[in-house]
């Protein structure tokens, strides 16, 4: 029997503690009459090879795991040059990448139903190019500075906790040692230069287990939403929690831009270069260039953005209260936001 889908699975996602969830996903796919073949990763970046090979063999490809696995599968499929359909079932650490194309992180059954429904659509993707000219595609956020240091620690640590918990633990470890440095950010029509903790280049809105660092970014406008933060480390740490409910921005020490192309580099040659990461994977030191690719790839995805529906279920009341508070202060920050609840739209 011909296998329609290649299921690429990371058996050690979240320290190998999610085997029961994977078994549930397979049972659900069986109940939905989805035909598939399983390919298990054996080492770092193995998913890239598996995705490239299975795409060339004619499969539609489904990445099953955390953001690390999903990003590898994304890059493998795109670099196969086959235009094979690509989908995700989020099981593991982070799960921000499936969320960028509208897949909610808390419902494996629903993710499997999306695969079975096989509804597809094109979404923007980002391309990063590091100082060695290495290229990597991404769906979520590319960042450099403080948060990339947190990512580096997270990737090196034993992922024995849930994605958000693991990220927060390493965030706490990083905050005491990190020193801000001067950077230059070159955009389509302007240049920003100054001291910054971090620069986040958002194709999608979240990273680090659903922190809305680029809260208004979406994968259907063909542009990056760039967030540059210059806040002392401890106040920044205090504010991180508000990002989960989109209650952080606007902020007087946060600078936001929209651009299709972004180049980030150190200003002072004597400074230790910031490292960069995309979708939770380290890509090297600055300088790094980013390019937004409109409708860059076709994904198996829900018709409506179900990740935004999940956000409203989890944080809707708090978010609505914050939007009303901003309006009372005269701030229209979220007035043009595509996913505002109907009772808040103007």
Layout: helices, strands, pairs:
Layout: E1 5-9, H1 19-31, E2 36-40, H2 46-56, E3 60-65, H3 67-79, E4 86-90, H4 96-100, H5 108-117, E5 120-129, E6 135-138, E7 141-145, H6 146-156, H7 163-175, E8 181-186, E9 191-196, E10 198-202, E11 224-229, H8 233-240, E12 254-259, E13 261-266, E14 275-278, E15 281-285, E16 288-300, H9 306-328
Parallel strand pairs: 1-2, 1-3, 3-4
Antiparallel strand pairs: 5-6, 5-16, 7-10, 7-14, 8-9, 8-13, 10-11, 11-12, 13-16, 14-15
Portion of residues in helices? 25-40%
How many domains? 2
- Give the CATH level 1 class of the largest domain: Mainly Beta
Count of alpha/pi helices: 9
What's the mean pLDDT score?
92
CATH-scheme architecture of the largest domain:
Sandwich
SS-derived structural category: alpha+beta
Low-confidence stretches: none
